[in-house]
Amino acid sequence: MYQVKPIAPDRLPALLRLMPKAELHIHIEGSLEPELIFALAQRNGLSLPYADVEALRRAYAFSNLQSFLDIYYAGASVLIHEQDFYDMARAYLLRAAADNVLHTEIFFDPQTHTARGVSLDTVINGLHRACVDARTETGISASLILCFLRHLSEEEAFATLEQALPLRDKFIGVGLDSSELGHPPEKFARVFARCRELGFHLVAHAGEEGPASYIWSALDVLKVERIDHGVRCVQDALLMQRLAQDRIPLTVCPLSNLKLRVFERLAEHNLGQLLDAGLAATVNSDDPAYFGGYINDNFVQTFAATGLSAQHAYTLARNSFEASFIDASAKRGFQDQLDQVLESFF
Ligand code: HPA
Ligand code: ZN
Questions:
Q1: Residue 1 is assigned to a structural domain of this protein
Q2: Atom of ligand 1 nearest to the CA of 180
Q3: pTM value?
Q4: Fewest CB within 10 angstroms: 155, 278, 314, 342, which?
Q5: CA nearest 180: which of 144, 204, 155, 145?
Q6: Average pLDDT, consecutive stretches of 10 residues, N- to C-terminus, the chain (346 residues)
């Protein structure tokens, strides 16, 4: 582990932006900027219940997760054709590459689209082609994780899995997102067991709005490899020990937590507490078009508000590669690049 030299506070934002990193918690539908929503609506001959981009942006005032999800699913309704999915993913990948994201694992919500009559082929082929092209164009490495919507039934998740299996070489894992409260991980025990048999990587949102017990069941019932959010683990000392001992990564999203009022102020965010307890926390953007910032904005604003150090920055970037689902030699390669960038920064 690289020992970071102290730096003047005014140089910290530059370090945060420059350091190579992985992004592991990004919902591609949450990267759909209002400008692109309007452009796609026009291209597809759809009308929106907002006069213009600014009116839509003004509607982005959330009181909790559900108030966000309602508007997020409405925004995604402009995605109809494979090219729409391609354009959305391409915009995110170029933006991420500009933030020095070397690798990203991107969530998508197939049921949001299949429920509107869009085929799974359209969704996955468009997203996947964007990942392949961005690799050639910018060097960014990207893979896809299919998320089941937890407010729907396990039977519907099974049906989605079945439809997706012919495209299984185009996604690396499955996740669980949408309304957390009242939809505990164990509701999806059988479908996650099946995905595990099939060799998919497993992740789940847990402990964003839901209690620490949801994190336990994501680990012990679903057998996930990472927890998305997980910030409510601090309510349970035994759980903190488990997460630290097993190096279970948490994909933390500070600006999301602020906008969905998981924390009332960024200064109250517990990222530092998680890191200081030895947890493999990472920083991510979740739904950057809705929460006011991409990954570097999350880093810069959180560090400014909480007073985290350059050593924390290095730990977060290193954790992001450790927590990713790339092979060991690719991880070492990225971590070496991180060390080199830090070395030349000082
Ligand atoms: N939580 C749950 N579901 C989601 C989120 C989130 O933060 N973003 C997009 N879908
Ligand atoms: Zn999320």
A1: no
A2: 2
A3: 0.97
A4: 155
A5: 204
A6: 83 97 98 98 96 95 93 95 98 98 98 97 98 98 98 98 98 97 98 98 98 98 98 98 98 98 98 98 98 98 97 97 98 97 90
